[in-house]
Structure formats: structure tokens, C-alpha cells
Amino acid sequence: MAELVNLRAARKRAKKRQDDLRADTNRLAHGQPKHRRKLEAAQQAKASRDLDRHRIDKGDGR
Question: Under a CB-based contact definition with an 8 Å cutoff, are residues 23 and 16 in contact?
């Protein structure tokens, strides 16, 4: 005997898979949330400032 399939449940599963795929695609396309981008920029700026503070100034204009 064949296995019974609930078409409504099968459609819901297919729609969920499609929505998950679309969400993954959008995550890649739109990147990170704003707060993470700002945090990353602040961390890079701080690292750059810290590196500049440790630089030895030779006094010859370079």
C-alpha cells in the first residue's frame, strides 16, 4: 500500500524550505546588522590608534 501524504503539510514544508533559502540569500546580500558594522569599525579605528601611539617618532619628518 502507498504511503499517505498530507498535501497541506507538504506545501507548508516546501514553503518553509523556500523561505529559509530566501532568508539565507538575503543574509548574504545585505550583510551584517548596523550595530555590528559600527562595532567592527570602532574596533578597527581603535586598533589603528593604538598602533599609531606605539610608533616611534624619529623627528626627521618621516
Answer: no
| Torsion of the alpha carbons at 10, 16, 18 and 24, rounded to the nearest 10 | -160
Cell numbers representing residue 28 in the block: 548574504
Count of all residues that appear for the chain in the document? 62
For 8-30, what is each residue's pLDDT tens digit?
999 999 999 999 999 999 988 88
3-state helix, strand, coil in the chain (%, to 5): 70, 0, 30
CA dihedral 45, 49, 55, 57 (to 10 degrees): 120
Look at the pTM and tell me if it is higher than 0.70. no
